[in-house]
Amino acid sequence: QVQVVESGGGLVEAGGSLRLSCVASGAIEGTYVTGWHRQAPGRERELVAAITQGGSPNYKDPAKGRFTISRDAAKNTVYLDMTDLRPDDTAVYYCKVSGWRLPKGPFDFWGQGTQVTVSE
């Protein structure tokens, strides 16, 4: 019953910024992490940033210094604020909620993705 929906993608010029939003509808039980992943044509999907239930962020190298992940628990929303965008940031950005709860075990929920295109 949990649904994950991303929004906020678009076309921007190099050096511009975007805010992506990930909204999770429905109750999420157990311990979980919300992450932003991206996939460009011809490349494997890669993790960009993640955030815990308590708001502790983790960034991969491409995002460090340029992207900020944050969480609004009251709105069940995770944001990815992207600045100084580069053409190689062009990709479909996906939100995933992954976790574990007893007695059912592991779970993960993927969104459908939102397109980010950065022009030169």
Could you explain how this protein is built, in words?
- It is a single chain.
- The chain is mainly beta and 120 residues long.
- It is built from no helices and 11 strands.
- Strands 2, 4, 5, 6, 9, 10 and 11 form a 7-stranded mixed β-sheet that branches.
- The protein is elongated, with a radius of gyration of 14 Å.
- The model has no long low-confidence stretch (mean pLDDT 94).
Low-confidence segments, given as residue ranges, are: none
Shape: elongated
Largest sheet: 7 strands, mixed
Our estimate of the beta-strand percent is over 45%
Overall pLDDT confidence: 94
What is the helix fraction of residues, given as a range? Answer: under 10%
Count of DSSP H/I helices: 0
Radius of gyration: 14 Å
How far apart lie the N and C ends?
40 Å
- Write the element-wise H/E pattern from the N-terminal end onward: EEEEEEEEEEE
In short:
It contains no helices and eleven strands. By secondary structure, the chain is mainly beta.
